[in-house]
Design brief:
153 residues; alpha+beta; seven-stranded antiparallel sheet
């Protein structure tokens, strides 16, 4: 059985997009980037994926330089190649081009000591959808708070 350890989540993606499907991709890392990721020094906020010449890349993902890495550190905002099967990439490319979906990184995690990125096939939410989601979360919190207070008293 594989062990998963989540390193970073893109919580904003759940707020801004309807996530239709998710895919798992490996990620090409260099030098001390894995050490920075192990220390939790990664940010997925405002990142997105693009497909160029049959390859998929993640843009806008920030991996902080490793403090002991000196000359081996890379640019924290560099574009990183994702590792997926050609068949999956071609399917995603067709879907993104035809229907206007976006590819958004959802989470970064370790799976059996390998760094993996969960990529979501997403459609943007309208403002009223975001407001509706916020109202539902607020109502759920109010209900949970009322239940907790009732169980105490």
């Amino acid at each position: 059985m594989s062990s998963l350890k989540t390193i970073a989540q893109n919580k904003k993606a759940h707020h801004d997009y309807f996530i239709e499907e998710t895919y798992e991709a490996g990620i090409e890392l260099f030098g001390t980037e894995v050490k920075s990721i192990r220390n939790g020094r990664v940010n997925l906020k405002d990142s997105w994926c693009s497909i160029v010449d049959g390859e998929i890349f993640v843009n806008g993902m920030h991996i902080s330089p490793y403090e002991h890495g000196n000359i081996f550190n890379r640019d924290p905002m560099r574009v990183r190649r994702l590792l997926m099967h050609k068949k999956e990439i071609n399917k995603l490319y067709g879907t993104v081009k035809q229907t206007g979906y976006s590819l958004i990184p959802i989470s970064l995690y370790f799976k059996d000591s390998r760094v993996k990125l969960q990529v979501g096939l997403c459609k943007g939410k309208k403002l009223y959808d975001k407001r509706e989601d916020m109202a539902k979360r607020s109502a759920k919190r109010d209900i949970e708070r009322a239940i907790k207070e009732q169980s105490r008293g």
